[in-house]
Design brief:
The protein has ten helices and 13 strands. It is an alpha/beta fold. The chain folds into two domains: about 130 residues, 3-Layer(aba) Sandwich (Rossmann fold), CATH 3.40.50.720; about 170 residues, Dihydrodipicolinate Reductase, domain 2 (2-Layer Sandwich), CATH 3.30.360. The chain is globular, with a radius of gyration of 20 Å. The model has no long low-confidence stretch (mean pLDDT about 95). It comes from Achromobacter agilis.
């Protein structure tokens, strides 16, 4: 049987490099990339995309749109790691654990949009709670997240790891215009009907994310507390290979969260922290922005698609 041909378009960026590393040496597929001299040649890229079974696009948004538009072979399947198609109804959102049907939809899809790193954590926390009616869809959600500097792409990595030593700050808040491109993705796929406030930041570490969503219990339906929120997440992700929900007794002993705790994995760790006296809850997610937040998720989606191709 012929091995599926997997073409990575843009394998020199942070996401593409890690996907290449994760797939290199696998015996169940043939991995194809373009030589350096041909990477920006539209004709060669279009030829490579139309000759493969699955194309993984690791490109900026506009080149990703152009690459997708260049496909004329109806059998070619695509995983787009950019944000170009994440709210496009014609593309399947590539978060297998989002609901009971999502893995099947991804496996059968021709077009899959890989989730953004920050939205992965926010949607994982909020989606099940909103669908269960424990968090109102119009709740005034605020999401704060700190990522390793690799989230800023090649330029950011070079600023911290280039010749002459680190040039980036120890910590930087950005997206101050409250118009970050991930916000509509969070709103749509978490099931929200009101735009959340999203505040991202970078720290002086290479990779990893801590994401938090604070909740006021007085704004939730009567009877909803941290325990019920935890139980909902625990039920939703029961049996999920890559999502862990921290037990309340373990969460009670935590004094801090390490954004790098799951680096190198495709895992996502969720937790609920609360203070009953003050009526407040904190939802948290820890994961690798280059793992479950990018390259690991792309490979997970690829494996679902390859299994369906059988």
């Amino acid at each position: 049987m012929t091995k599926p041909l997997v073409f990575i378009d843009g394998d020199q960026g942070t996401t593409g490099l890690q996907i290449h590393e994760r797939l290199h040496g696998r015996a169940d597929l043939q991995l194809v990339t373009l030589p350096e001299a041909e990477r920006k040649n539209p004709q060669r890229r279009a030829e490579a995309i139309n000759a493969c079974d699955v194309a993984i696009l690791c490109l900026p948004d506009e080149p990703a749109r152009q690459a997708a538009a260049s496909i004329v072979n109806p059998a070619v399947r695509v995983i787009d790691a950019s944000s170009a198609h994440r709210t496009d109804a014609g593309w399947v959102y590539g978060f297998p654990e989002m609901n009971a049907d999502q893995g099947r939809l991804i496996a059968q899809a021709l077009r899959v949009s890989n989730p953004g790193c920050y939205p992965t954590g926010a949607i994982a926390l909020l989606g099940p709670l909103v669908r269960a009616g424990l968090v109102p869809a119009d709740y005034p959600v605020a999401v704060h997240a700190v990522s390793g500097y690799s989230g800023g792409g090649r330029a950011s990595v070079d600023a911290y790891e280039g010749p002459g030593g680190p040039q980036g700050p120890a910590f930087q808040l950005y997206g101050l215009g409250l118009a970050h491109k991930h916000t509509p993705e969070i709103e749509r796929h978490a099931g929200l009907t009101a735009r959340p406030v999203f505040v991202p930041a970078y720290g002086a570490f290479r990779q990893g994310i801590v994401l938090t969503v604070p909740l006021q219990l007085r704004l939730l339906p009567a009877g909803v507390d941290g325990q019920r929120l935890h139980e909902c997440l625990h039920r939703h992700y029961a049996g999920a290979a890559h999502v862990q929900v921290v037990a309340p007794e373990d969460a009670a002993g935590h004094t801090h969260l390490d954004p790098q705790a799951l680096n190198g994995t495709n895992d996502l760790r969720l937790a609920v922290y609360g203070n009953a006296q003050y009526g407040q809850v904190l939802l948290t997610a820890v994961f690798d922005n280059l793992g479950k937040g990018a390259s690991g998720a792309a490979v997970q989606n690829l494996d679902l698609m390859l299994a369906a191709m059988g």
